[in-house]
Each structure stands twice: as structure tokens, then as C-alpha cells.
Amino acid sequence: MSAYHPYAEMGKTCRTRVIEEKKIxxxxxxxxxxxxxxxxxxxxxxxDIGTAAxxxxxxxxxxxxxxxxxxxxxxxxxxxxxxxxxWESDSKDRMYAxxxxxxxxxxxxxxxxxxxxxxxxxxxxxSFIAIHPDYRQGKGGVRIWSELSAFYEWMKDTGAEYxxxxxxxxxxxxxxxxxKRMGWKIAGIFPGSYTRWCGDxxxxxxxxxxxYRLINDGGAYSTKPEEWQLIPEIRKLWDCLEEINxxxxxxxxxx
Length: 255
Ligand SMILES: CC(C)(COP(=O)(O)OP(=O)(O)OC[C@H]1O[C@@H](n2cnc3c(N)ncnc32)[C@H](O)[C@@H]1OP(=O)(O)O)[C@@H](O)C(=O)NCCC(=O)NCCS
Prior knowledge:
Elements: E1 30-32, E2 39-43, H1 49-59, H2 87-93, E3 96-103, E4 109-118, E5 123-131, H3 144-156, E6 162-168, H4 173-181, E7 185-197, E8 203-214, H5 232-245
Parallel strand pairs: 5-6
Antiparallel strand pairs: 1-2, 2-3, 3-4, 4-5, 6-8, 7-8
The structure holds coenzyme A.
């Protein structure tokens, strides 16, 4: 690249580093929650694929017809999602990981999350989370909040330095959790961001609210607002966002 140069000298308000191989590695996970309705939290295995796809169809059918519709179809999983049986290689090579919550006594899969990694950006996106409709609002002891708090400790162990999530706007439950309980910052509101199914063969473009968090050394390598070139209207938007983001509360720390 020595024949070329960047538009402006940047990285003056943060650390810079030599570009080396960047890799996210999915940490393995198996954990049993305490309490009388114990849940086993674990990564996806080959035998879970059919059940997981059915859980997504029951819980998140809106992705039908979208770039993420593969989560609804078992035949699309192999080659994409890291599987317990091939963990040694899949944890490095597969772009997606799924974590399942299984009722210890009935063995029923009652919630799932799907994560996407972007190695060269040291980024993990918490793409989807869903609880089976029969287990929502804490029924059967499934409380999304207590599961998520442990789960973000796990994200830190992937080696990621930028973690992101987008929350749908057909309810505000996840916005509340990520903002008021997880302490993540609002990145922006994305009207029309993803196509979403609305029944029969029909779709619309939904609006998602995006959140982020810099973990591990991510903050140290990120430029600060002092060196951003922003037009006045966007500077105003940033100031407003910062003011609102001060209200983001954290009941658990991941960095
Ligand atoms: C999103 C989903 C996982 C949430 O699970 P749920 O069981 O319905 O969530 P709850 O209603 O129990 O809310 C979770 C917690 O947040 C609190 N909460 C949620 N929204 C709130 C709000 N606007 N203000 C205050 N508290 C709020 C609840 O009181 C609850 O607190 P608790 O755990 O301390 O009792 C579930 O509804 C689901 O699978 N939906 C379909 C798929 C989906 O929409 N996924 C997310 C897309 S972004």
C-alpha cells in the first residue's frame, strides 16, 4: 500500500496499531442456571438444528424473505453455523453461532440467540434473540434479562472489541433491556433497514434501533469526536445522542 495515502491524517485521538490477522473465536459454552426451573445454556449441536429452526419459525417468522431467512430452514444451517461436534474448527471458521436455552427437566428448547461475527472488524453482532411464545414474560423461569447478562460476559471472551445489536420496533422490550439494563449506547434509528414478513406472501421494510458497545481494547483504538469532520446538523445530532446515551444504565459490566 506504500504508493497510496489516506485522505487525512486520522487516529490522532486514539491508539493505532500494526494491522495483523484479526480473528473472532466463538468460546464454547455449557452452563446450567440455578433455581427450580433450571436451564441448560449451550451451543448448537447437529441434533438441535430441526428444533432450532422450528423455534425461529414460531418466534421470529418476520425474517421470512429477508437476508436472514436461512435461520428458518434446517437445511441451511450446515456450513454456516458453528456446531458443537466440529467446535475446534467451526468456532474459528463459521460466521454464525447459536446459543440455545434448554429446560433441564423436559429438554425443550425454549430460547435461542443467533450471533454473527465479522473477523476483520473484530465485531460480533447479536443478530437475533427469541423466546418460545409459551415461555415469555418469565413463564417457566425463562427470564431473558438474567440469561443475557451472563451471555454478554461470553461475548467479551470472543476477542471482539465492537459489539452491536439491532432491535426491532414491533415492541420495545429489547430496546429497554439493551439501553436501561445492559448499558449499551444508541448508534441510531434505521428506518426501512430490513425487509420483514407480514403474513401470506407479503413483506414491508421495518425499522430497527441499533446499539453498540466497545469492549476489550475497542475504545482505545476508536477515534474521538474531536477529530470527526461533521456538518453542524450532524454535530447537533451527535450531541443529542450523547446526552441521551448518558441515561443508558448498566446493571452488569462487560468491559
Ligand atoms: C423479545 C423477547 C425475547 C422478550 O421476552 P419476553 O419474555 O416477552 O420479555 P418480558 O416481557 O418478560 O420483558 C423482559 C423484561 O424487561 C422488562 N421490560 C420490557 N420492556 C420494558 C419497558 N418498555 N419498560 C420497562 N420494563 C420493560 C420486563 O418488565 C421484564 O423485566 P423482568 O425480567 O425483570 O421481569 C420475546 O418477546 C420474543 O421472543 N419475541 C419475539 C422475537 C423478538 O421480537 N425478538 C427480539 C427482536 S429485537
